[in-house]
Amino acid sequence: MNDFATPEVGEFIETPEIQSGAMAHSQPYVAAAAHQEALGFPGELVEDWHDKAIGRLGELLKENRGLGVFLDSCVKCGACTDKCHYFLGTGDPLNMPVARQDLLRQVYRRHFTIAGKLVPGLVGAAELTRERLDDWYRYFHQCSQCRRCSVFCPYGIDTAEISMAAREIMDCIGLGQKYSNEIIGKVHKIGNNLGLPERALVDTLEGLEEDIEEETGVTVRIPVDVEGSDVLVITPSADFFAEPHVDGLMGYAKVFHQAGISWTLSSAASEAANFALFIGSQRQMQEVAMRIRQAALDLGVKRLVVGECGHAWRVAYSFWNTLIGPFDFLDKDFPAPQHICEVTYDLLQRGALKLDPEANDDKVVTFHDSCNVARASRMGGWAGGQFHIPRAILRASVNNFVDMAEETIGEATYCCGGGGGLLTDDLTELRVKGAYPRMQALQRVIEDHGVTHLAAICAICKSQFTKVLPYYGHDMDMIVGVHQLLSNAIQLGGE
């Protein structure tokens, strides 16, 4: 049994009463020495951790000019206080974005501002003590880096950047998080988050091919390491092993098959996700992403397409060109990279896909805008495309679609509660409570419109909802992928 209470969903999202220290007990497992050292970080907390932490903060301020601006700009206006799903779900004041920021901002002022050095007490400056470092570890791992608070901040302060900086500093002094760092190490060693070797990957995909043929009577390939293919698909490794993820991968395969597009996966770079984003390490982000560039070169493909994964798309859209570009070896008639939804949408616009939405008539579907897609990317080359395109695919695939309340979707979307490297069982309480705002919005369309299924285009969102939906009285199978629904609707017979 759980030793915490699931937030009670009411008619409205309510701002909670302040409960100081309500989540002070919550923190992820600390990375073991092997997980740290595999990434080039100290295996345990170094003796001179204080000086090294301040030194690394100084380096980050030079490397990222925006970080200093964010730390200097806050006027404590309070616009962000009730915008964080973790504060709304827990009532812990240190989960207010401004308060969480201040855990680092106060240290910044003490060491990097004149006033903080001379009169620290007057400007809210504070020393980095071991107690404060422990608070860093607790509360910067109670931030999913969703950036919702930045939408409502009049100065555009990005809490995610501050959270990433704090985590990067902690890694550099030997206080890393097990979940993210262990996963990054698997990518370096094997090529995917699961640590799935090539033979196991191929066996899994052959099984999915058999499932498609049994379902449709049509032979549809999910190719691996096919040189000269037009498209290299980089998908989250969740798509290889579990529902609802695998159903989405089968949807991609059906799309390429019906459109007559040659494509392949890569055994050397079989992972779209880049957990290095969560720990704020530019060096690790580049190393993880470089596998993808090399795979594209080795296979001689013309296009790079990213599967249904929110932070994978954020990294690809926002960082690939500087991390692993230029992509002058790819076909210039297509964006580099593309999202799988962009590919499917374009094919739908050209009439290249045959869909029968009646195949999903047993469902009433709503859509969850994933944070990293909604607030850190675009699709289709126009503002708002990231909101329009997935919904257009859904409307082509289902007859019964309804959006959740406007203030809970689009740019203002609530986080699933499991992003930012927090999708680990040691943070179950945080994840359940962090899902409260989305569950409240979902409950309204269930009661008002009979919604039966929640669609998403992010592997983390799908995994998170699979875990937390039962806490709120819903079946875990309620969460589906966009290409899973399209897979149900696409008509391959008669070929």
Describe the structure.
This protein folds into 2 domains: 33-176, Fumarate Reductase Iron-sulfur Protein, Chain B, domain 2; 184-489, no CATH class. The radius of gyration is 23 Å and the shape is globular. The protein contains 22 helices and 7 strands. The chain is 47% helix and 4% strand. The protein has helices at residues 33-37, 49-63, 65-73, 85-90, 97-112, 114-118, 130-139, 148-152, 159-172, 178-189, 198-216, 245-259, 276-279, 282-299, 310-323, 340-349, 371-374, 385-397, 428-434, 436-449, 459-468, 482-489, and strands spanning 231-234, 263-264, 303-306, 338-339, 365-367, 453-456, 479-481. The protein is mainly α. The model has no long low-confidence stretch (mean pLDDT 96). Helix 5 crosses helix 9 (159-172) and helix 12 (245-259) crosses helix 22 (482-489).
In short:
47% of the residues lie in helices and 4% in strands.
Structural class: mainly alpha
Strand content: under 5%
Task: Quickly count the helices.
Answer: 22
Distance between the termini: 52 Å
Radius of gyration: 23 Å
Helix content: 40-55%
Oligomer: single chain
Q: Tally of extended strands?
A: 7
Overall mean pLDDT stands at: 96
Overview features:
single chain; 495 residues; mainly alpha; Fumarate Reductase Iron-sulfur Protein, Chain B, domain 2; four-stranded parallel β-sheet; three-stranded parallel β-sheet; 22 helices; globular
Reconstruct the topology from this structure.
Blueprint: H1 33-37, H2 49-63, H3 65-73, H4 85-90, H5 97-112, H6 114-118, H7 130-139, H8 148-152, H9 159-172, H10 178-189, H11 198-216, E1 231-234, H12 245-259, E2 263-264, H13 276-279, H14 282-299, E3 303-306, H15 310-323, E4 338-339, H16 340-349, E5 365-367, H17 371-374, H18 385-397, H19 428-434, H20 436-449, E6 453-456, H21 459-468, E7 479-481, H22 482-489
Parallel strand pairs: 1-2, 1-3, 3-4, 5-6, 6-7
